[in-house]
Amino acid sequence: GILARECAKKGIPVWMTAEGGFLSAVEVATVLALLRVIDNPLREVHLLALLHSPIFAFSPDRLANIRADHPNTDFYRAVRAAAAGGDAQCADFLEKLGGFRRLAVTLPADALLRRLYDETGYFTLVQAMENGAQRRANLLLLLEYARGFESAGFKGLPGFLRFIDRLDPEA
Hints:
Elements: H1 2-9, H2 26-39, H3 44-52, H4 60-69, H5 75-84, H6 88-106, H7 109-120, H8 122-127, H9 132-151, H10 157-167
């Protein structure tokens, strides 16, 4: 697309999926799921995508068991109930999410992204994947979008997510 051509002109490697732009690339979609869950953990589709991602590595069977054990509530509350029942993986997720949510209140979107890249190890992980250099470039481009958003005078995670939604409603 246009974005890929413009990035190529400037020597910026960008890896795009066949379905869409860089916002649809799995590594960017994973980080956007993380941001959306930080903003609102009741977003079930994003929560499930995040939990299943390499960041938290819940298996599909594990997620199904959490749902089966707590069928009459939303998935976030099911995770909370599992943690309260002694589930260490759920407790670890909730502890990290709580810290990320506290950061989101005080940090600009670009600084939050940098912290998330560092604290989750995801930025390093994607570099070890197939097309690692392009995946890294996509995460850096997302960071540039956040920087541009903040430098234009806009602030905060909710505003940045609305900005991303306007760029690509499918993201």
